[in-house]
Amino acid sequence: MADAGAPFRIRGATGDWEVVVGLEVHAQITATASKLFSGAATAFGAEPNTQVSLVDAAMPGMLPVPNRECIRQAVRTGMAIDAQINKWSRFDRKNYFYADLPQGYQISQLYHPLVGEGEVTVLLDEKDESSARTIGVERIHVEQDAGKLMHDQHPTMSYVDLNRSGVALMEIVSKPDMRSPAEAGAYLRKLRAVLRYVGSCDGNMEEGSMRADVNVSVRKPGDAFGTRTETKNVNSVRFVMQVIEHEARRQVDLIEEGGEVAQETRLFDPDKGVTRTLRSKEDAHDYRYFPDPDLLPLELDDAFLEECRASLPELPDAKRKRYEAHGITAYNAAVLTAEVESARWFDALLDAGAEPKAAANWVTSELFGALNRLGKDIEDSPVTPVQAAELLGLVADGTISGTIAKQVFEIMLESGDGAASIVESRGLKQTSDTGAIDAEIDKILAANAEKVEQYKAGKEALFGFFVGQTMKAMGGKANPQVVNERLRAKLS
User: Name one GO molecular function term (predicted).
Assistant: First the structure.
């Protein structure tokens, strides 16, 4: 793809085309272990139909009662993207028949959602602040999920699992502001990060607690919006980007061949990387929305809103700016704040006294590299932030060199021992004893008289050779700064 500053274009036979993308993200409120209108459990992977209350199964006479924590988490999420919080909102019934919808309607919010307009700012290039894009969010409404049909359990029948029925969802609807697969990917990653920082949703796309409906249309740059298709339930950032690539190309080819894009719902086949028709949307469905007669409107008071705002943590953008103010590079700050667990670990490292810039370089290279090699997440790191701070402190005060620190870190990963005790027990302390260093330098210069002459004749690149030989002779324990100073003195 082109650089972050260049507009994304699809090359067609009749010229360049622009893609227009909007995302509807369904995020399960995982901060609470119960459903939107019942106390039934929501744990992933439970046996079918073991987490279904009488309300979820739509038994006669059962009345829904809103889960206060679900409403609170949706409000906190809205606040995290600077969205309008509507003090008065209402639940509506969306009427349609489907086998996994026992009520014959879904309780949602159409006309008066809980959260109004907000925005999400993304960086297309983490090293370049000028690559920032702001994506508008139209609304966040709260609704209940449907159940799940299983077609592969019996040769002639479909089974219904109602465990998901009534699970609380936030539907986060973006404006059609994205113009490339990269922008959509950045938006989805940033939104997932915000949800995880807030704690309202775990963002686990593989388990279905966050999934996206992808709306795609194409147009000649500057023209009116074209007809869009909606690809349902895409469950990874990479797949969302693939859907946009494929759909944009498919639509351009179709239009240029004289066809018309049908407004329809499509499904993505991740094995083939293509979308296919699910159902036509030529006529807008009449869901006969009306206010749910069993539920009073939601009215939020100022005390509730103040508590929601006060409970918000430091969010990714604020944390990134704080890190940069400590002298950490924009790229490292972006890497450290991308996942809430990494940011928490790094904050604990700073709290333990590590110098920010050196700590950031060490975490993004040494620690992340080791965890990747071990196949572990940062929460499972064998080295704690306090232990890491001790290791970095030993380098900072000259007790050990950077080279020795790498060896000590490997021993820490295997043994779980602290850096200071490893350095002490294995005799790894760095020496700044000029007498011992001078003695080794004298031997090396005497053994390499020809190279000394070449250096003095102007071949300055040989200085690195002398440094390397001295460090090798001293088992890597010599203070590099002292070695450099003594060598320059003796070679001058």
Answer: glutaminyl-tRNA synthase (glutamine-hydrolyzing) activity
